[in-house]
Amino acid sequence: MSDTVQAPESRSSSTGKSFGWLLAITGTVAWLASITLVLERLELYKDPDHVTSCDINPWVSCGAVMQEWQAALFGFPNPFIGVVGFAVVMTIGVSLVAGARFPRWYWVGTQIGVTLAFVFIVWLWSQAVYSIHILCLYCMVVWAMMIPIFVYTTARNMAAGLFGGPERVRRAARDWAWVVTTGLILLVAASVLISFSGVFFGS
User: Which spans are transmembrane here (predicted)?
Assistant: First the structure.
């Protein structure tokens, strides 16, 4: 048998490490965006006239978004949730890269957490684009990172049989994850362009 043929165990390990890198990288980027928002929020607490680093114009302004009630849905700034949550995502990613294996219950908990986070991000996106009508650059970075985190975590769990289902469905989830991720990112970008068409293209 050729040495280039990879054993199932090796393929599984390789896939796990690739997924781990994805979580580590996207989690790190989203964590950095979240911690930046926290620091900017703290500056606003100290100085209400503080101009945040992404206050570009009336339609792209983190500072303006932070003044809205949606920015502190649970009574404290939303980015604090991101700082904690994305740190967990980074930890899972690094652990997978290092070769860690987690039991089924761990992946069930991870799926629940990632799904709740994705629903929250979808709500924040809808509020920013259609209600507040002001964009926050760092928030959009978090949106962009949350999409692959959710899609690839769900695809990984489907492929591993966490939800049951026929093999062809599990294989499709793994093979088409990048298509779903790309499609969702394009949909979000399109929603921003359409909602802010007057800003981008003039009245």
Answer: 21-39, 79-98, 105-126, 132-155, 176-201
How many C-beta atoms lie closer than 10 Å to residue 89's C-beta?
Answer: 26
pLDDT of residue 202: 65
pLDDT value of residue 203: 57
Residues near 29 by Cβ (< 8 Å), separated by ≥ 6? 141, 145
Q: What is the pLDDT of residues 25-59, one digit of tens each?
A: 999 999 999 999 999 999 999 999 999 999 998 89
Cα separation, 124 vs 74, in Å, equals 13
Extract the tokens encoding 170.
Answer: 């599990």
Q: Residue 10, Cα to own-chain centre: how many angstroms?
A: 28
Residue keyed to tokens 């990879």 = 6
- Written as six digits, the tokens of 81 are 């949730």
Question: If we measure between CA atoms, which residue out of 58, 203, 44 comes closest to residue 134?
Answer: 58
Taking the model in full, what pTM does it have? 0.90
Within 10 A of 111 (CB to CB), how many other CB atoms are there? 18
The domains of the chain, with CATH numbers, are 12-201 (1.20.1440.130)
- How far is 61 from 65, CA to CA, in rounded Å? 6
